[in-house]
Amino acid sequence: MRNEMTLSFVAIEENEALARMAMTCFITPLDPTLEEISEFKTIVSEAVTNAIIHGYDCDGTSMVTIRALIDGNKVSMTVEDQGNGIFDVEQAMEPMFTTKPLMERSGMGFTIMESFSDSLSVDSSIGNGTVVRFEKMFSPVTEASRMR
């Protein structure tokens, strides 16, 4: 199976749930397990939250764009903002690093995304935004997997 979609929305915190649910609906034809759904929703949530909070400082006017592709049992996805950019991507991907400690941000977003995806990359440019790319493989659909 092959399918693709693009979703753009205003960078407000309420739209994180929209992105999470839209992307969950998009992968439904793959018949994912509950664990796969949970991991996928977490990756989407973390990437979108980073774009809204860190990329745009919750400005409420800028746009976040998600592009997703299903090819067989693999989902490839990007979450893109045109915001602040990340000064040091390597440092930002370190566990517990946050630029928003006063907002009680844990600094675990990239670590969580990396642990739940099969591949993760981040491209960023100061003043031009950030693109988070990830891939996730889903279990082939079998009668046994439907029983889980």
Q: How would you summarize the topology of this molecule?
A:
Layout: E1 2-10, H1 15-27, H2 34-55, E2 63-71, E3 74-81, H3 89-92, H4 109-116, E4 119-125, E5 129-137, H5 143-146
Antiparallel strand pairs: 1-2, 2-3, 3-5, 4-5
Describe the structure.
Helices cover 34% and strands 28% of the residues. The chain has a single domain (2-146), classed as Heat Shock Protein 90, CATH 3.30.565.10. It has 148 residues and is an alpha+beta fold. Strands 1-2-3-5-4 form a 5-stranded antiparallel sheet, with helices on one face.
Annotation keywords:
148 residues; alpha+beta; Heat Shock Protein 90; five-stranded antiparallel β-sheet; 34% helix; EC 2.7.11.1
Strand order within the widest sheet? 1-2-3-5-4
Radius of gyration: 15 Å
Mean pLDDT across all residues, rounded?
88
Overall shape: it is: globular
CATH topology name: Heat Shock Protein 90
How much beta, percentage-wise? Answer: 25-35%
Structural class: alpha+beta
CATH class: Alpha Beta
Number of strands: 5
Number of helices: 5
Order of helices and strands: EHHEEHHEEH
Number of domains: 1
Give helix % range.
Answer: 25-40%
